[in-house]
Specification:
alpha/beta; five-stranded mixed β-sheet; 3 helices; about 30% strand; globular
């Protein structure tokens, strides 16, 4: 699904999304990545929602964003409360949804001038 015509300056706006792939600034990326407003990280990202734990969210905690948009694959799934406890302690809000909705929501938040992180995970095997 095409989401925007082009990028917005130096921000990592999601231009397109299909199952397992996201388009950012003219490049296709496999899901299982962390998208920050001006950075993309692939290392240390959990594969699925079942692998999510407080230590895997360290890059989000260090990023300085106020909200995490968590895409859980093609279907919305919820992690254990313990996995997100570090976000609550750091006063980082979060929303959990499927990857397509997460991409749309991330773009809206960036368009409002707010700092957010988008964590896109894969479907469990």
């Amino acid at each position: 699904m095409k989401m925007v015509l082009d990028d917005a300056g130096d921000l990592n706006v999601i231009a397109a999304y299909t199952a397992g792939e996201v388009g950012i600034r003219g490049q296709a990326h496999a899901t299982r990545l962390l998208v920050l407003p001006r950075d993309i990280r692939r290392d240390g990202i959990p594969a699925t929602i079942d692998d999510l734990a407080p230590d895997t969210l360290a890059p989000v905690l260090q990023s300085g964003v106020g909200i995490l948009i968590l895409g859980t694959g093609e279907q919305q799934r919820f992690p254990s409360p313990e996995a997100l406890s570090c976000l609550m302690q750091a006063r980082i809000g979060y929303e959990i949804m499927d990857n397509a909705a997460a991409c749309r929501t991330f773009n809206i938040i960036l368009g409002e001038g707010r700092e957010a992180a988008l964590l896109l995970l894969d479907d469990p095997a």
